[in-house]
């Protein structure tokens, strides 16, 4: 008997349904770093020579790349970082595109618009590839400027041709987006943050709600260092990179600030998420860089590579041009206190460029200075649909959380048992940004949508989210190994997301998080690894074992990070293991590798990878695949495993922190 495949049976339905749902929500344009009201505010302040905006404008105007006489350094068909290929040329042109687009929007001089269009058309027609070990970082920085330029030019009647617009959309989605779509969970958090904001911006420019939500959901519930609460790690405001150096720390929180400004223009209060955690990160960082002492918590990051014991003095006091935006939002928009951020902003005023290269936009005095009108408290005619809806299930309930809609006074919760609905209202007048659905049936997958209300006006429904109330039948999960912390296993209707600790299975005693079903006789299990995992110390696989005892007989196929002389680039390979008797050693029966592209690039598991384990009588056979259609045998052996077995995926972190691994296309055949 072939049991239902959780992805293959639902993916097409989910994709079509979620795509249709996305069409119900409309983006605000221009709506990245600069909204229509921002452009009007800057334009009026410059015309009236209001300070400090006018001084900020003069700094901006005098910059070399703000000139309509700027000479392009590109385009190039390939750019790259580590090794460098045209990075400086691309970043300079990206800065010029963004700054000329803004000069056009502020001055109305079409020569600036023409220059921005020239740059956008040139690069979008020629650039085909972003390469190198650090490609994801490069694609997260300079292209953000390009997308901002495109957003401004497209939505300010600058005279950009429809062909140019469509070419830019295609370029951003087919050249830039594939490089950043899975973010950078293997790196320090500023890499993740750069990718998040660029995916968000592409989503807005291309009117693609799925892309926008992908980034927004990773910001609040991702598994890398760039998730907000993984980056600003505690209520004190300590940042994941505070012990590394102050330059990267300031950059990382600034990149997350850019995400919040984009979300704000789309009607979402990402700034306020997790109790204004972003502000706490800025206050902590500004406080330390202004010469004050700060508390510090010993930390090991999500990758397991970066451990810090004290705040770094490297680049301490070298303030970057990142504080005006945060000061003006929390103090001028919201009327909150941000004393250290305010001091840092004052020291830099008027802010200059966000050097080096295209690291950050900078120029916050021009971009963000505003009167203390507390515009956030103004009535919102119709609130935006809530963002980043997240559902987390257990056998007793499903917990929902979301990013607040600006101006919303209450929320309505809708639920369905099928992705396509019908959806039924299950709760109204919810005051906060969370709800616990206790009326659930264990092992049932539910789908949710949330709408916001303000003064009787209702938003569109949120982008949907699914969760199973406990794992769907026949799945169960538990840690294997004495004293091991219990991990988690979630299923959203398409993907299994597993988190856990442990060293793995290649020893006398196993230690990992195991998710299984009962396999009474012959059968097979197939899974697809979904990139990317949160640590390169992670090992994961699929197994069949007689019990949950840590020394039980088992057969397993693992993807394993072999040691190399480069911590950043393990030698990923597969291991077929067997423990024939209780208490015996898990022996390596077969080994393949190292894995290569498209599964592995530069030592990182950046692509999909399939695993299959087959039991037929006493014979265990393992298979691996790079595409799910062409399979290679990874080994076989005759086993003494007998009776009903526990079969399923296993994950281990290989370090002191937990890891997160995701699987889809999970297929059971009996």
> What's the helix count?
15
Neighbour order of strands in the largest sheet: 15-18-29-20-21-22-23
Average pLDDT score: 95
Structural class: alpha+beta
Quaternary state of the chains: single chain
- What count of domains describes the coordinates? 4
- Form type: globular
- Give the number of DSSP strands: 30
| Percent of residues in beta strands | 25-35%
**Cα Rg:** 26 Å
- The span between the termini is 5 Å
Helix content: 25-40%
What low-confidence regions span 5 or more consecutive residues with pLDDT below 50?
1-17
**Major β-sheet annotation:** 7 strands, antiparallel
Domain Alginate lyase: 90-293
InterPro entries: Alginate_lyase_dom, Chondroitin_lyas, FN3_dom, FN3_sf, Ig-like_fold
Pfam families: Alginate_lyase
GO cellular component, one term: periplasmic space
Overview of this structure, please?
The chain has 4 domains: 26-57 and 219-380, no CATH class; 63-180; 387-468, Immunoglobulin-like (Sandwich), CATH 2.60.40; 476-669, Jelly Rolls, CATH 2.60.120.200. Strands 15-18-29-20-21-22-23 form a 7-stranded antiparallel beta sheet, with no helix packed on it. It has a 7-stranded antiparallel beta sheet with strand order 16-17-30-19-26-27-28, with no helix packed on it. The model is unreliable at 1-17 (pLDDT under 50). Helix 2 (36-47) crosses helix 4, helix 6 (135-154) runs antiparallel to helix 7 (162-180) and helix 8 (189-205) packs parallel to helix 11 (246-265). It is α+β, with helices and mostly antiparallel strands and 670 residues long. It has 15 helices and 30 strands. The longest helix is centred in the first third of the chain and has 21 residues, at 87-107.
């Amino acid at each position: 008997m072939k049991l239902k495949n959780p992805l293959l049976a639902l993916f097409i339905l989910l994709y079509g349904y979620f795509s249709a749902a996305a069409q119900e929500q409309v983006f605000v344009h221009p709506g990245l770093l600069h909204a229509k009201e921002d452009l009007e505010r800057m334009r009026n302040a410059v015309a009236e020579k209001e300070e400090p905006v006018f001084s900020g404008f003069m700094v901006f105007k005098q910059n070399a790349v703000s000139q309509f006489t700027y000479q392009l350094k590109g385009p190039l068909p390939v750019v790259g970082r580590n090794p460098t290929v045209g990075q400086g040329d691309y970043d300079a042109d990206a800065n010029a595109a963004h700054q000329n687009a803004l000069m056009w929007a502020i001055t109305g001089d079409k020569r600036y618009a023409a220059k921005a269009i020239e740059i956008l058309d040139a690069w979008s027609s020629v650039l085909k590839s972003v390469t190198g070990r650090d490609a994801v970082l490069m694609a997260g920085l300079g292209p953000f400027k390009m997308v901002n330029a495109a957003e401004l030019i497209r939505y300010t009647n600058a005279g950009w041709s429809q062909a140019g617009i469509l070419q830019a959309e295609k370029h951003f989605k087919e050249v830039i987006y594939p490089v950043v779509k899975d973010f950078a969970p293997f790196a320090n958090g500023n890499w993740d943050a750069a990718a998040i904001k660029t995916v968000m911006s592409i989503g807005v420019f291309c009117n693609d709600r799925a892309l926008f939500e992908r980034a927004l959901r990773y910001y609040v519930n991702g598994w890398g260092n760039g998730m907000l609460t993984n980056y600003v790690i505690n209520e004190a405001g300590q940042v994941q990179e505070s012990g590394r150096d102050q330059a990267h720390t300031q950059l990382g929180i600034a990149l997350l600030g850019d995400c919040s400004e984009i979300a704000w223009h789309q009607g979402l209060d990402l700034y306020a998420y997790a109790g204004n955690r972003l502000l706490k990160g800025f206050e902590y960082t500004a406080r330390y860089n202004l010469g004050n002492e700060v508390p510090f918590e010993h930390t090991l990051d999500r990758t397991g590579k970066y451990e810090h014991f004290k705040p770094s003095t490297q680049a301490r006091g070298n303030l970057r041009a990142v504080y005006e935006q945060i000061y003006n939002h929390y103090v001028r928009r919201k009327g909150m206190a941000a004393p250290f951020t305010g001091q840092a902003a004052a020291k830099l005023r008027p802010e200059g460029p966000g050097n080096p290269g295209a690291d950050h936009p900078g120029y916050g005095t021009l971009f963000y200075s505003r009167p203390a009108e507390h515009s956030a408290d103004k009535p919102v005619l119709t609130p935006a649909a809530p963002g980043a809806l997240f559902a987390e299930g257990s056998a007793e309930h499903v917990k929902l959380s979301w990013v607040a809609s600006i101006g919303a006074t209450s929320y309505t919760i809708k639920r369905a048992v099928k992705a396509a609905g019908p959806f039924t209202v299950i709760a109204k007048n919810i005051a906060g940004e969370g709800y616990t659905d206790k009326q659930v049936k264990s092992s049932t997958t539910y789908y949710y949508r949330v709408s916001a209300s303000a003064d009787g006006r209702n938003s569109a429904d949120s982008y949907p989210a699914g969760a199973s109330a406990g794992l769907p039948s026949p799945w169960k999960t538990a840690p294997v190994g004495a004293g091991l912390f219990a991990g988690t296993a979630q299923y959203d209707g398409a993907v299994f997301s597993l988190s856990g600790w442990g060293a793995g299975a290649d020893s006398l005693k196993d230690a990992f998080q195991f998710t299984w079903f009962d396999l009474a006789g012959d059968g097979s299990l197939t899974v697809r690894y979904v990139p990317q995992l949160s640590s390169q110390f992670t090992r994961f696989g699929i197994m069949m074992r007689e019990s949950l005892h840590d020394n039980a007989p088992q057969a397993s196929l693992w993807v394993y990070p072999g040691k190399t002389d480069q911590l950043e680039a393990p030698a990923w390979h597969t291991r077929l293991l067997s423990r024939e008797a209780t208490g015996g050693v898990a022996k390596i029966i077969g080994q393949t590798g190292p894995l290569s592209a498209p599964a592995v690039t530069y030592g990182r598991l950046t692509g999909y990878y399939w695993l299959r384990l087959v039991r037929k009588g006493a014979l265990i056979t393992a298979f691996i695949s790079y595409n799910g259609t062409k399979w290679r045998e990874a080994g076989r052996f005759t086993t003494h495993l007998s009776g009903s077995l526990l079969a399923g995926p296993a994950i281990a972190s290989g370090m002191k922190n937990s890891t997160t691994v995701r699987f889809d296309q999970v297929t059971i055949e009996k």
